[in-house]
Amino acid sequence: AVRAPAWPGLSAPCLCRRERVRAMFYHAYEHYLESAFPYDELRPLTCDGQDTWGSFSLTLIDALDTLLILGNVSEFQRVVNVLQEGVDFDIDVNASVFETNIRVVGGLLSAHLLSRKAGLEVEAGWPCSGPLLRMAEEAARKLLPAFQTPTGMPYGTVNLLHGVNPGETPVTCTAGIGTFIVEFATLSHLTGDPVFEDVARKALKALWKNRSDIGLVGNHIDVITAKWVAQDAGIGAGVDSYFEYLVKGAILLQDKELMSMFLEYNKAIKNYTKFDDWYLWVQMYKGTVSMPVFQSLEAYWPGLQSLIGDVDNAMRTFLNYYTVWKQFGGLPEFYNIPQGYTVDKREGYPLRPELIESAMYLYRATRDPTLLELGRDAVESIEKISKVDCGFATV
After folding, report:
1. Residue 2 pLDDT more than 60?
2. 99, 193, 368, 383: which is the annotated catalytic residue?
3. Which of 47, 71, 173, 350 could link 394 by a cystine bridge, Cβ 3.0 to 4.6 Å?
């Protein structure tokens, strides 16, 4: 690893932990290269690999921007060359539209945009040209057929060679419809082709138009008929990144319409789903509680609240979630709030980053040392409970 320069003002314990995190990254990364490449993911218990999201060597795409952040420019350049030679999007594979966007298109775009800052030579015309941008555009074009529906809301899966399969289900989760504006608008601005931003905005507006009379959205919707199939409303799985992308899209594009949509949702969420700084699941038309659970995917919410300046509420909710982390050494997928314990068969912790991301945003907003403690706890517990010989495993 190329060692990045020390940060001025960082204490010795902080620097030590930073080096520990760097070592954790390389423990996973080097074992992926050794045991799993060119497959999408490493299987850390059996020390082999598997394709999970479409046979893109996905872990390498995911790791690109991290390599730059860690200062490893030479490895970044090597991996870019490997990906250019080895990744083919013209393949007969059914791929998740949502996952391909956030992981492949997003991973390539973020690495593309960080490359000059990292000291790499870039093409003339950068940031509107470059090998990673071309790959991102190629991947995104493979997703466009999914958006050809009467509502503009995309199918959940598309075949990268043939388009949408004739028998494809029209039922898509809300997050799978509303999680494109960040990558697709960036792509449109860099390439000059408005089609990507246009389809992402149309999908967002279709969800907005189909919210309930009390201002909530459900979990799954039919993209042909716009009929809600799952009517649970909350901030977690199946809905989460729709709200995240309204805020982050608004910030990225300085777009008042996206922010006003989110702020309206935020009012309804506070009115119907918030109880004692927890957020429950409710019926989208009636507002009656359907599931009194906290899901680990909801842990992005305090970070999102801090981005809109609602720091006090964000901190109180964060501390609720942090008590669950301290109880178990990680967040279970489902936590029954009244019982104060995990939900049967949903006890797992698949190394999700949401609570750590919220701690980062909140720390930037408040400089509260409690948030650094979460960072320390996360490093300690991930190493203690999930580190294995070939990487880090789901618990």
Report:
1. no
2. 99
3. 350
